[in-house]
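Quarterly update from the structural biology core.
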Amino acid sequence: MGNRVSTVLARRLGGELLRLRDAAGLTQPQAAQALSATAAKIAKMEHGWVPFRDPDVRALCELYGVRDEEFVARLLNLARLDRERRKTKGWWRNDPSMGGMAEYVAMEDAATHIRTWQLALVPGLLQSPDYIRALGVSGDWWKHPDEIETLVDLRVKRQARLWGDVPLQFHAVIWEAALRQEVGGPAVMRAQLNHLAEMARRPNVNVQVLPFRAGAHDGLAGAFNLISFAEPGSIDVAYVEDKASAVWVESMEGSAVYGKAFDRLSRASLAPRDSIDLILSISKGM
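Predicted structure, tokenized:
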């Protein structure tokens, strides 16, 4: 990827440093003096165009009057993750079939915790191969059947993050409609629901169902993912995707809005054990 590339993690960190500089009432040239650098370097940092050195982050935090060591540690962790991200040789880097998903998959690979809200689909990391295949067939993007199999292979590769010595912590809240929509027909959907229930029993996977009876809720505007790069309470980013575009919400205020929405959806949903019971009940009815 190289250094002169804007990344999600670097933009997230740069945005925090910009917010802190504005709060301190300082200019870019004044900040640059603390690093014995130019204002152009500060501008590049604040826009996420360059990797961050730990001494620079510490010096800027000191200049901006940041006394919260825990907050500074989270910024330093974000800088470390971004440096690692820029050097990584992940399988998605040079795979042309990844398209616009490459950046998201890179974030997924670096994440420690993902929360997802889904209205119409089972989350990608919990999808069975036949369910993925049925979704692919329903689209108009492919020209040859082999492209659908490539989609299946890529999604299954991503699911490896749920396994291993340090698996991803994954919390999914799914609207009941996604469980009743017969993607691929009853047999495919029944197998998908059984797979979902099995995955929900894993210690690192938490699945909750928001039932129809919950009525109006905070997630009707659309699906979203919240990606965390350290322990709970760390700096998060939100990812919002629709048919035509994808948006990264990188500010602390913006990601907090999605975090609060997710918490409300989770509180309105069934408990994990009751969710598994409902999933299996719907499966048996198909």
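The domain at 96-284 is CATH 3.30.870 (Endonuclease; Chain A).
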